[in-house]
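Bit of a strange request maybe. I'm writing a small parser for structure token strings and I need a real example to test against, not something I typed by hand. Could someone generate the tokens for this chain?
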Amino acid sequence: MLALLNEVKNYLRVTDDKEDELITRIIMAAQSFAEHYLGYKLGDNLPDDIKLALYMHVAALYDNRGSDECPSESMRIYARYRKLVI
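Reply from user aminoacidic:
Good idea to test on real output. This should exercise your parser:
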């Protein structure tokens, strides 16, 4: 999670560690959403586009605190990896 935290902070342009706990919780929420939508757990070696979708999702949650919406751009990326269960 530390590596992902640092990558997300770079994406958000956050340079200090004052909000690390908040950002970590937002990452966990975005990851949980993605895993539920995709139908499987995300591993450590994520494809770059899934990482980007997570970054965008975290940024939206970070910038619009109190919102639980996932950006449509993230949803389009997630949709390519979704496993449908019938």
